[in-house]
Design a protein that fits this description.
Helix content is 31%, strand content 14%. The protein is of the alpha+beta class. The protein has two domains: 12-267 and 359-475, 3-Layer(aba) Sandwich (Rossmann fold); 278-311 and 314-353, no CATH class.
Length: 481
């Protein structure tokens, strides 16, 4: 295995502040840039991951959003250091793609009103009993890269638990109860039953560099449904995530291939949760309605029990427009019109909130386990990404020094919490106005993707002593549609 550059604690604490500033103000107009160089071969870069890697934005995938995916933006910068560098993506046809969210207006509440622009996909099967409502499985036009596989292997909705599922990309499996990913089907020839892990093995055989950013899609069904849908992120669930992450990374790092591994950010950093943070949300609602009414939530274990919202309970952003709306509630033998969430008789239902005591604790423990677990005395429990990075001796978007960790939260999400200005442009975690997150409260705008790409560039430059230029994020549009 190649001896990739490792890190020490020297100078890193100062770099934490410096790099966070650089990523938000990188390549501002008039800034002098060093001659792009790299000490590793980046001529054939392969990106492995799920929704973020694929380029989903505003709740959908389009040809435009794919062009602004962080791997494609990163590849453009790699090409400046190595003109031989190429990068292929499984581009959709021009048009609305899978469909996406479009902004209607932005009321005084700050919660965007949106409409769904329908996609061009073809309906193949419906599971009427899916959690959260009927689920439509769709088929898309096959990618022009299907014969050889693209270099961007990001698949929306891909879970680590599915990487060895045969037929994951075969339309014959598009039934109500099967495991099927229509985005994977686009990447493969017809009737191809290979697994995602096999596809990664094939694509990486000719790769010289890689990025790995995967795992959030395993957790998003649980998050988006307030803990009602998807597998609960228990210890056995995360153990499987880590085992399968290692299977992919063993393939990607074979022969000492250089790359960057990204940990998962804190779930509460996503506006889907942060915008509805407990006590702060209660105060916002009181200011909005001009009263002192409390917010109430259902108990997730005993739905008949009701309690006041706590500081670390999170109401889903998708439910915020309904807070305070008068809805009919049966009280005794009478039907009363009561404000949703602002009356103990009409509490916020469990599907609209992740509560601290069970769901958020479970979620936070899962992310910490996936990112950080490292106990050599228990070899039967697979290590987390930090420990794997040490094993592969390569830089990651988490740099462990024994004193401080540098990761996506430090570089992007935490600075964005209170807001940062870049050449007069505000960047924060608020959808639309914040320039980083898109209308689905989760995926990124083109500028958000550029900042993530800059995070990878920072890791490449430090880890491999390169001088890949950063992206001027303000030069990109605020929406991919």
């Amino acid at each position: 295995m190649k001896n990739h550059y490792s890190y020490s604690g020297f100078g890193l604490r100062a770099a934490l502040v410096a790099v966070a500033t650089l990523l938000l103000a990188a390549c501002a107009p008039g800034q002098d840039s060093p001659t792009p160089t790299t000490n590793i071969d980046v001529s054939r870069y392969v990106a492995v991951g799920d929704t973020y890697t694929a380029g989903v934005s505003a709740g959908g995938l389009t040809r435009a959003s794919q062009r602004y995916s962080f791997p494609n933006l990163l590849a453009q910068q790699l090409n400046r250091a190595n003109e031989a560098a190429t990068f292929s993506q499984p581009l959709l046809e021009e048009g609305p793609g899978t469909g996406y969210l479009s902004l209607l207006d932005l009321p005084a509440s700050g919660i965007p009103r949106v409409r769904r622009v329908p996609g061009q996909s073809v309906q193949r099967a419906i599971n009427p009993n899916a959690c959260g409502g009927p689920d439509t499985v769709r088929q898309f036009i096959r990618s022009a890269t299907a014969a050889t596989l693209p270099q961007n292997l990001g698949l929306p909705g891909l879970q680590l638990s599915q990487i060895e599922s045969a037929g994951l990309g075969n339309i014959a499996n598009a039934t109500a109860t099967s495991t099927f990913n229509p985005y994977f089907e686009r990447l493969l020839p017809a009737n191809d039953n290979r697994t995602y892990l096999q596809a990664v093995t094939t694509a990486s055989a000719s790769a010289t560099f890689f990025t790995y950013f995967m795992g959030l899609d395993d957790l998003m069904p649980f998050i988006k449904s307030g803990g009602e849908c998807g597998a609960a992120p228990t210890t056995p669930f995360v153990t499987q995530m880590k085992r399968n992450a290692r299977k992919i990374l063993d393939v990607l790092t074979a022969g000492g291939r250089p790359g960057i591994i990204a940990r998962l950010p804190d779930a509460a950093s996503l506006p889907l949760l942060r915008l509805g943070a407990g006590s702060a949300l209660e105060a916002q609602m009181q200011a909005r309605f001009g009263d002192n009414a409390l917010l109430y939530i259902q108990d997730p274990i005993n739905p008949g029990d009701v309690r006041q919202i706590g500081e670390k309970d999170y109401v889903l952003a998708t439910a915020l427009p309904r807070i305070g709306q008068l809805t009919p509630v049966l009280v005794g033998s009478s039907t009363l019109m009561l404000p949703y969430g602002r009356d103990a008789r009409n509490p916020i239902v469990d599907a609209d909130v992740l509560d601290e005591s069970t769901e958020m604790n479970l979620l936070n423990a899962a992310i910490n386990n996936y990112n950080n677990y490292d106990n050599p005395s228990t070899p039967n429990i697979p290590p987390g990404l930090n420990a794997l990075a040490k094993l592969y001796n390569m830089p990651v978007l988490t740099i462990s020094t024994g004193e401080r960790t540098l990761n996506l939260n430090d570089l992007l999400f935490n600075p964005l919490t209170s807001g940062n200005f870049n050449a007069g442009v505000l960047y924060n975690l608020t959808p639309v106005r914040g320039n980083f997150f898109s209308l689905d409260y989760y995926s990124l705008t083109p500028r958000g993707n550029a900042q993530v790409a800059n995070s990878f560039i920072a890791a490449i430059n430090r880890g491999y002593r390169s001088s890949i230029p950063f992206i001027d994020v303000n030069s990109l549009p605020t929406t991919a549609q």
